[in-house]
Design a protein that fits this description.
By secondary structure, the protein is an alpha+beta fold. It is built from 5 helices and 8 strands; from the N terminus they run H-H-E-E-E-E-E-E-E-H-H-E-H. The chain is 25% helix and 27% strand. Bound molecules: nickel (II) ion. Residues 101-103, 143, 147 line the site of nickel (II) ion.
């Protein structure tokens, strides 16, 4: 296992096309190691999600893990490995919530997202699965799957005036802000 270097905004890999994986690729030691390293990297930086382009790999791989935060009304999403994920928005509604990203360090912004999604993907044994996610977990799934299409959260913001550095966010927004995505 290894902690991987995270690409920051401006690196072309964050905007490049990503390749879907074949079942035999998924079972390869290279991809299995990539998954383990992405989980370790996400934990090291205390993120709740990480997509392969963020570690300089243009493959359709992402990992998410959201700890429960009952005081913020936030349900847990257990560690989920998503290969070739497809996200279906289950609502026409869009809810504003604060997001951050390991590839845009020290920033936060308000992003509109669907509050409920269905995620269909392959797991690390190349078995198909489908789950529904709501609220913050749905936000994290949308954020990570966007990375696989070269999209970062600031592309989704409808008002860049909310973009804030974390120190200023904590000072001027913090207590009412609710959960933050990485
Ligand atoms: Ni991100």
């Amino acid at each position: 296992m290894a902690i991987l270097k995270v690409a920051r905004l401006g690196h072309p890999v964050l905007r490049a096309a990503t390749q879907p994986l074949t079942r035999s690729q998924i079972r390869s030691s290279d991809v299995q190691r990539l998954i383990d390293d992405m989980i370790e990297t996400m934990h090291e930086y205390e993120g709740v999600g990480l997509a392969a382009p963020q570690v300089h790999v243009p493959l359709r791989v992402a990992v998410v893990e959201v700890p429960a935060a009952p005081q913020e009304g936030r349900e847990a999403l257990p560690l989920t490995i998503m290969l070739n994920p497809v996200v279906t928005l289950l609502s026409d509604e869009r809810v504003l919530g604060w997001e951050g990203c390991l590839s845009l360090p020290d920033l936060r912004g308000l992003v509109p997202r669907a509050p409920q999604v269905r995620l269909s993907a392959l797991d690390r044994q190349a078995r198909p699965f489908s789950i529904e996610a709501q609220g913050f977990a749905a936000r994290v799934v949308q954020h990570e799957c966007d990375h696989l299409d070269g999209i970062v959260y600031i592309d989704r913001m409808n008002d860049l005036k909310t973009l804030s550095f974390i120190a200023e966010f904590d000072r001027f927004v913090g207590p009412e802000a609710g959960p933050v995505d990485e």
